[in-house]
Amino acid sequence: MEDKGIRTIEQVRRFLEGTADVEFEIETKADRYEWTEETLRRFRYLEPGKAEKGLLLRFLEKVTGYSHIQVKRFVRQYFETGHVRRRKPKKRGFIRKYTEADIRLLAATDELHGTLSGPATKKLCERAVKIFGEHEYERLADISVAHLYNLRRSGTYKRRRVHFTKTSPRPSVIGERRKPRPNGRPGYIRVDTVHQGDLDGNKGVYYINAVDEVTQFEIVCSVEKISENYLIPVLTDMIGQFPFIVRGFHSDNGSEFINRKTAALLNKLLVEMTKSRPRHSNDNALAESKNGAIVRKHLGYTHIPQLYAPLINRFLTDHLNPYINYHRPCFFPETITTASGKQAKRYPFSSMMTPYDKLKSLPNAERSLKPSCNFSRLDDIASKLSDNQAAKLMIAAKIKTF
Fold first, then answer.
1. Residues 48-73: tens digit of each pLDDT
2. Nearest to 216 by CA among 367, 389, 58, 359
3. φ, ψ for residue 96, nearest 5 deg
4. Coil/strand/helix, residue 200
């Protein structure tokens, strides 16, 4: 550790105020104990007045990460023995299974993938070992979901990673008001728009978020405006990015989709068009949930001028869409009948997989693919990069784009 720039009480005060240009990190407990003893000896802690001692205590707390009570114990030990040493336990405690390195690896994985849920993170660790041969994840692959959250609350994890981002009343005859019926087949997509915010009266870019109901295969596109002239080319490109044939198109009742040009495009592609029903708020819930979990999480809420829509669209097409479809695990529901005869949905961990893996697991999945696509080609895309490599490339492209 390098802290040669702090030698006086005044330098300690400036460090605590955040004006001193000093950066360092202590990794292990042994280093923290050794540094604490050296600091107490360097500043001759037993000689200064009460105010100076208070500054030194705050300095020790901030650097070591220990509580005020623990630091006071260090001072008492130093006063009595002249040293700060770790006390050996009187009896053997629990054997620690997950090391500091495992916790730092978990923090790095969460940073890459945006802190997914515990089950999704566990699935990533399993995939890292079983599919991509990343053996440093072997212990994390066997962790329980509950204990994974415990590791996220640990001091090592927190030191490694800290977080501080009108419907028209006029009735329209376009589209049918009903819930889509995919019957287990891919190709029935739920579509919604997300606005990137206003600034001084100027509109930001819009995102078109389309999610397949069965596989959760998702395509996000960016568009300058949601008028028909801008929207039709983007919808055509969006439908083209799905590897399977699109059979259904479900949206809410917004005029950006419920219009004659969109209806003509879907009729040309032989796509069935449906729209949400009144007093059925869950009709488009899948797309709404993905708006928060994908679009807002990766693109945020800050205003982005409309002229950058083509640049953002290239990032979405080349990086974000492949990542979320081939490398990001999702929950898939199973419907069970309870003892009272009601149907309830469960989300077992065993059924968690990526959208592409879900597509491959469907019966007769090859029949749903477009003539230009086949699983051999899609397997090459899925296995070209590991989950972590895909996340790193996506993050690097995001930083470069924004």
1. 788 888 888 888 888 888 888 988 88
2. 359
3. -80, 125
4. coil
- Record the tokens describing residue 198, joined without a space: 């206003």
Please give the Cα distance from 330 to 361 (Å, whole number).
14
Distances (CA, A) of 78 to 45, 49, 81, 394: 9, 17, 5, 50
Beta bridge partners, 305, equal 204
Residue in the structure block whose two tokens are 């590897």: 243
Question: Band of the pLDDT at 285, cuts 50, 70, 90?
Answer: confident
Residue 114 C-beta-side C-alpha neighbours within 13 Å: 21
Helix (H) or strand (E) holding 76, with range, is helix 68-81
- The pTM for the full model equals 0.68
On the CB side of 87, CA atoms within 13 Å amount to 9
Residue 287 to residue 305: CA distance in whole angstroms? 24
Three-state secondary-structure class, residue 284: coil
Segment holding 177, helix H or strand E: strand 176-177
Q: Which residues, other chains included, contact 241 with Cβ-Cβ below 8 Å and sequence gap of 6+?
A: 219, 317, 321
Q: Is 83 helix (H, G, I), strand (E, B) or coil?
A: coil
Beta carbons of 128 and 389 less than 8 angstroms apart: no
Token pair in block for residue 131? 């599919």
Question: Is pLDDT of 373 > 80?
Answer: yes
Helix or strand or coil: residue 173? Answer: coil
pLDDT digits (tens, 9 = 90+) for 198-231: 888 888 999 999 999 999 999 999 999 888 788 8
Q: Cβ distance 305 to 205 under 8 Å?
A: yes
